[in-house]
């Protein structure tokens, strides 16, 4: 009897069904909290879900790699969701007129400044080369951060975690900081949020305003592109 | 829903293939996004198009898709603690500087572009 119980348990903590369910329940909890607090900035579903799932797998003594491969089914949809960002952009396409050049220049400036600042700060504060290469790609969306980190010799899963943290930072504090910086133009706000907080910042921008969301999505794509091209060059110069 | 998702996956697939064939340093899904954008523009798709509805449904839960990567934090808690100062400071400051750089330069460049295109 206890043997079969043990077997069932082993099956459970290795089954995608269990991990996907736990993740969905934790996310649902985060949404619930967001609604109950009237959309409080700190109540970001991804933040709540990471805390709940992280605690759960630590208590259950489940290896992260096992959890990760069990939830491949969820992470898979990041690709199609990135493609889906064409839709808010399509609705806002008329706002692209006369804006393409300023937008492209701003995105390149953003990628240059953001990578350079991160690299120089990690170096100045005593981080080693691997840490530099792990932090550098963090403003791109997680699948891109993982790919870039692999190419340049960082720790890919840690780059992904830092990307998620940068994203959460944008979802929690982005709009308030942009108010403080007196950036009021919806397109500029969206571009800024997408450039430093990718998809997670975009999800907040989509809630704030449709234009802001559309440009955040576009900015996330362009930043991934600009960073992919600039990162190897900047690292050769700085690291 | 299925038709819409098929369109999204199709665009991603074409994007991924193009990136691999041309060896371009661009993420495949981003190429897929550009492709879908062009398709939507050409077909003047409205809000009732299946792909639009599927996209809206997926984007409503965008944050969910980042949870598996974020949970990786449990593996790196010790690393982050050991290098807390460089990681936290670089992350926060570079985030803020990047946000300000993009926000301010967009506003500035927009004004410049508007001035140049204004009738003299």
Largest interface, chains and sizes = A-B, 108 and 75 residues
DSSP helix fraction of chain A: over 70%
Q: Stretches of chain B where pLDDT falls below 50 for ≥5 residues?
A: none
In total, the number of strands of chain A is: 0
Q: What integer is the average pLDDT of chain B?
A: 93
Helix-strand pattern of chain B: HHHHHH
Instruction: Please tell me the overall pLDDT of chain A.
Output: 94
State the total count of DSSP E strands of chain B.
Answer: 0
Detail the poorly predicted runs of chain A. Answer: none
Q: Total number of helical segments of chain B?
A: 6
Major sheet of chain A: none
**Could you tell me the radius of gyration of chain A in angstroms?**
19 Å
Q: With helices defined by DSSP (H or I, 4 residues minimum), what is the helix count of chain A?
A: 13
Oligomerization category of the chains in this entry: heterodimer
How much beta of chain B, percentage-wise? Answer: under 5%
Percentage of residues in strands of chain A: under 5%
Query: Helix- and strand-based class of chain B?
Result: mainly alpha
Report the principal-axis shape of chain B: extended
- The secondary structure category of chain A is mainly alpha
Distance between the termini of chain B: 52 Å
Detailed description of the structure:
- Chain A has about 240 residues and is mainly alpha-helical.
- Helix content of chain A is about 80%, strand content about 0%.
- Chain A is globular, with a radius of gyration of 19 Å.
- The mean pLDDT of chain A is about 95.
- With about 120 residues, chain B is an all-alpha fold.
- Chain B has 6 helices and no strands.
- The longest helix of chain B is centred in the last third of the chain and has 34 residues, at about 85-115.
- Chain B starts with a helix and ends with a helix.
């Amino acid at each position: 009897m206890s043997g079969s119980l043990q077997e069932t348990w082993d099956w459970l903590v290795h089954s995608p069904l269990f991990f996907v369910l736990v993740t969905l329940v934790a996310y649902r909890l985060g949404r619930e909290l967001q609604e109950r607090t009237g959309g409080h900035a700190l109540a970001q579903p991804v933040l709540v879900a990471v805390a709940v799932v992280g605690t759960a797998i630590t208590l259950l003594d489940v290896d992260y790699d096992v959890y990760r491969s069990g939830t491949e089914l969820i992470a898979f949809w990041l690709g199609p969701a990135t493609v889906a960002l064409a839709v808010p952009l399509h609705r806002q396409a008329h706002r692209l007129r006369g804006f393409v050049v300023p937008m492209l220049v701003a995105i390149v400036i953003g990628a240059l400044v953001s990578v350079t600042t991160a690299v120089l700060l990690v170096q100045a504060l005593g981080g080693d080369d691997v840490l530099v290469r792990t932090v550098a790609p963090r403003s791109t969306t997680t699948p891109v951060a993982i790919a870039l980190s692999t190419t340049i010799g960082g720790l890919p899963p840690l780059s992904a975690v830092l990307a998620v943290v940068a994203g959460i930072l944008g979802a929690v504090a982005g709009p308030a900081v942009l108010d403080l910086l007196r950036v009021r133009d919806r397109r500029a706000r969206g571009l800024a949020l997408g450039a430093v907080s990718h998809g997670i910042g975009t999800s907040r921008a989509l809630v704030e305003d449709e234009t802001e969301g559309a440009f955040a999505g576009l900015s996330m794509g362009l930043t991934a592109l600009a960073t992919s091209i600039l990162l190897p060059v900047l690292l050769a110069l700085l690291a | 829903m299925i038709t819409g998702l098929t369109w999204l996956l199709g665009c991603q697939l074409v994007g991924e293939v193009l990136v691999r064939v041309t060896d371009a340093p661009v993420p495949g899904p981003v190429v897929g996004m550009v492709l879908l954008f062009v398709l939507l523009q050409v077909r003047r798709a409205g809000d009732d198009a299946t792909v639009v509805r599927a996209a809206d449904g997926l984007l409503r839960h965008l944050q969910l898709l980042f949870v598996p990567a974020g949970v990786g934090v449990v593996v790196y808690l010790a690393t982050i603690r050991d290098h807390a100062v460089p990681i936290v400071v670089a992350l926060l400051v570079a985030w803020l500087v990047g946000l300000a750089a993009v926000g301010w330069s967009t506003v500035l460049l927009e004004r410049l572009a508007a001035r140049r295109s204004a009738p003299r």
